[in-house]
Amino acid sequence: MSNRNLSRTIAMQSLFVWDFHNQKGDINEIIKNNFINFAPNFNDDGFAKKIVNGVINNLEKINQYIIKYATEWPLDQITVIDRNILRIGIYELVITKDVPSKVAINEAIEIAKIFGGISSGRFVNGVLGAIYKRITHNA
């Protein structure tokens, strides 16, 4: 697992915990605990924290993308894992310009395949692919 992939995984796990607990709790403490539990000797220079804070600071905008592009699934019916993988993917695809679009999509799909259900990879690919098509046609 690459360093950035591990950081995204820690970010997803942190957002999962935060979202599972109704978006309550100290997100910095959640991130810290996930590093202690899953990557105790790993220093990502704040990359996971940047993703988590970016998602939380843009949550409403990101959720609107999910609502618009995952039309068959109400936001609260998407699994907590898939919802937060999508949030990270949308953050990296739409909000920040630090990550190439295809990398953002591929990373989200890989995390979905590892942590999500049987169809999570296809679901994440479908939603992020539709967003990518839309933003590249409007560019």
Structural description of this entry:
This protein has helices at 3-20, 27-38, 47-57, 59-69, 80-95, 101-115, 120-137. The protein is mainly α. The protein is 73% helix and 0% strand. It has 7 helices and no strands.
How would you concisely characterize the structure shown here?
With 139 residues, the chain is mainly α.
Q: Helical segment tally?
A: 7
Radius of gyration, in angstroms, nearest whole number: 14 Å
Structural class given helices, strands, pairing?
mainly alpha
- For the report, how would you describe the main beta sheet? none
Distance between the termini: 33 Å
Note the run of SSEs as H and E. Answer: HHHHHHH
Broad shape: globular
Number of E-state strands: 0
What number is the mean pLDDT? 94
Unreliable stretches: none
Characteristics:
139 residues, mainly alpha, globular
Reconstruct the topology from this structure.
Blueprint: H1 3-20, H2 27-38, H3 47-57, H4 59-69, H5 80-95, H6 101-115, H7 120-137
Helix pairs in contact: 1-2, 1-3, 1-5, 3-5, 4-5, 5-6, 5-7, 6-7
